Amino acid sequence: MSRDFDAHRLTARILGVALAVTACNPPRALDGSLAGWAFVLAASGAAWWAAPMVDARPVLNSMRWAAVAVHRRNTLLAAGAVVLAALTAPAVWLAACVTGLLVAYLLLTDGWTMGATAPAGVDRATPALAATAAAAVVFAASTAPVADTAWARLPAALALAATAGCVALSLRHRP
């Protein structure tokens, strides 16, 4: 393996661990209890394992969820970080950090923006800008003050359903 490839894997691992730890909401999780520390350490270990892209050929051996999940573990890391951040209800500044780390992680592990799958001469910056803009819109919507209104559960339910559907589609239809 080349040095660049090893550096890329290490960068993905470090960024994945940072994303997982930030999504755990450290100010709340690391309150001194052993369970909080164990949770953050477990999330860090899982992120270290899941963060780099799988470099094996995209041969589908099994359609069982466990086999697909192992092959698509970096996708599950990103989705899991979003779910974890939503469950821990971080402060706005920490949610902004999770959003920034998520966009950086997704762009780092995306084959198109890295240039691995993009055809020669194709603009790779536009998808990166679109992903960043989409993350900014989602972040703005997530910080909208609807928690104390009667409409609070509808956007949350729609967002969870859309996220679950997108994760299922991305795991099912990628080569």
Automatic annotation (TrEMBL):
- The answer to whether keyword Membrane applies is yes
Residue ranges crossing the lipid bilayer per the database entry: 34-54, 75-108, 154-171
Instruction: Give UniProt keywords alphabetically.
Output: Membrane, Transmembrane, Transmembrane helix
Q: Any idea what this protein is called?
A: Uncharacterized protein
Q: In which organism is this protein found?
A: Actinacidiphila cocklensis
